[in-house]
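Tutorial handout. Part one gives the primary structure; part two gives the three-dimensional structure as tokens.
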Amino acid sequence: MAEDIFITGDWEIPVLMIGFGMFLLFSRWEFHSRAINRIAKSTFAVYLITDFPLTRNLLWGHWFNLGELDQRSFAILRIFGVLIAIYVVCTVIDFVRQGVFALTFDRRPGRWFELLWNRVGCWFCTKYSEYSQTLDTHQGGSEKISPRHVSRP
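Part two.
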């Protein structure tokens, strides 16, 4: 029934042919626009949001069951409208994410990594010094190996 419809199948021949044809059509087209490029930056985020298992089941199983939509009048227009609405909502979500990152993580690039690296380095140095002191007392040696000093933030 709804599973037999070729429009909703992931790997059906017509879907693959249309996707491949659209890719060839747009790959040869020269076009430059700041607005389009800004929206296009969110394409991967839209894919990740809609392909996450929880949202995939919610979107395509509960809210927008495409198998039910294609039985109504103007099915292609309704499906196209649903897809555009989902793309717009996911793009807005990604714009919000970009804004949050601009205010937090991107303000000083690499700062969070440096903080984490310094914490791990300090933890490793203390473990190494404890290990070398334990090793030194068990072996009865007089030489001490001092760990490299890592500055704390």
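Part three, for discussion. The chain has seven helices and no strands. The mean pLDDT is 76.
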